[in-house]
Specification:
2 helices; alpha/beta; 131 residues; 21% helix; three-stranded mixed sheet
Length: 131
């Protein structure tokens, strides 16, 4: 593996089951597969990189996550095409997920930037961008 490639990201979540239910279909659509599963966590892997979701301890639940505080702002993933972004957008809407920046969708990132933006159950922003 080349030096500097991302190995993994670990995210603490407020309700593990809800988070895994939300992320499983999306990550599988993007080519990830379930990697590890234990009582307090679940991970998904693509190539040599994986994303880990861990149930936060009750004593650390407050204050809840907010992307505008110090820390992670959002996760962005590559889509295969603009059509792929559109397909994922339709699936997100069918699941009742609110699309962010709807007034500018799918060009919220600029005229030459085609993406969908939304939030996970803990309100972490997620972006899927076309090449």
């Amino acid at each position: 593996m080349p030096v500097g490639h991302l190995h993994h990201v670990e995210l603490y979540v407020s309700e593990l089951k809800r988070t895994v239910d939300f992320w499983r279909w999306l990550l599988e659509e993007l080519g990830y597969h379930s990697f590890q599963n234990w009582e307090e966590g679940h991970s998904f892997k693509i190539g040599d990189t994986y994303i880990v979701f861990v149930q936060v301890e009750e004593r650390f639940k407050e204050p809840s996550y907010h992307r505008c505080r110090v820390g992670l702002n959002h996760l962005a993933f590559h889509a295969s095409s603009r059509k792929h972004v559109d397909e994922l957008t339709n699936k997100l809407r069918a699941k009742g997920v609110t699309i962010l920046y709807q007034d500018r969708h799918p060009y919220a990132g600029g005229d030459d930037y085609y993406a969908v933006y939304f939030e996970d159950p803990d309100r972490m922003k997620v972006e899927i961008v076309a090449p």
